[in-house]
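For this section, I looked closely at a protein sequence along with its fold in token form, which I now present.
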Amino acid sequence: MRKKTRRCGSLCLAAVMAAMLAAPVQAASLSDYDEATRTRLQDQVLEYDEIPALVSLYNPDMQQAYVRMEDSLSVYRNGMTEYKNRAAELDREADKASENGDMAESMVYKTNAAAMRSMAKEYKKAVERAESVSSTRSLMQAEDTITMYVQQMVQGYAQMESGCRIGEKSVELAQAAYDSAVVQSGLGMASAADVKAAENSLQTAQAGLRAAEEGKNAMKQNICMMTGWDYQADMTIAGVPELDLGQIESVNLQADTEKAINNNYELISIRQGKANTTVTKNVRERSLSEKEQEIRISMTSLYETLRQKLSEKEGADAAWAAAQKEREALDRKQQLGMVGRLEYLQGELAYLQAESAKQAADLELRKAYEEYEWQVTGISVSGTAGEQ
């Protein structure tokens, strides 16, 4: 079962989270999903396609945002009800005073009642502001941003796993080379310097593997906390699926750019900002123009990055196909006793490196596509594909 999570806000900018006002939406609940999906979300495996739901359901920053939302609405609604009730009481007192012929006292009660109703209206406005579309949009923006970060963390974790496999094979190869050097030294075929060099190579490989494993474990802990597990949870992060290239074929830069401009959270905020004077209107129009131009430039850059990553993937696929053939040939030689242990380990390492390069290209392409799509959705993306 999912454990209680520790607080984690490392990926959520304070400014973004502080902007999350109350909204007329309810926090996500498992009851929103069908039984099959609920079962998947509650198992001990994080599947890549589950990330949006896990962030929505369990991310501690989003949970805190919804708590603040409920707290704010409770304060406003309670205040509105209190002042309404107080105004009604004062109206009754005014009626009693009027019935008793004390018109002056009745007028005082009526004046105070009017003041109470005025306060109730102010609280009502506060509730309406808290439940506004802009506040809902702030929550959506924060959730989308966190989801994008978690996706990229899981992609980074996948690459770290590959690095650990390479590190393990590097240690195995270095150990075999060291063992061989020791044997050769005993036969007078290698010097003490040769043995020392092999030992140093082994220690370097071991240190590299430790560093890779520490980095992978740290990334897993962050992913756990961002998706609702305890940071030391015994859970599995599934591999990142390869992107369907058909999704890239449907990309239309011109149409997507217009969608990005219409959907951009920052642009919408600027459009909705008050501008009561000529000066403020001019400032708003200038801000709109500059932001629209920024989005157009960003969309073009993201599109170019996407095409570049597609080309790189095609090259990596070709290299991977060649590496598979070399591995098959190596296995046949090994079965026939035509290759020594060191040579075979070197071939295995080369194969793992080619496999890692293909995976890296796949992940970079997915990241480029997802950043493009996030920009279309409304998130301002700087175009970071290739900067894991």
The chain has three domains: 65-131, 150-238, 245-388. Strands lie at 45-46, 236-237.
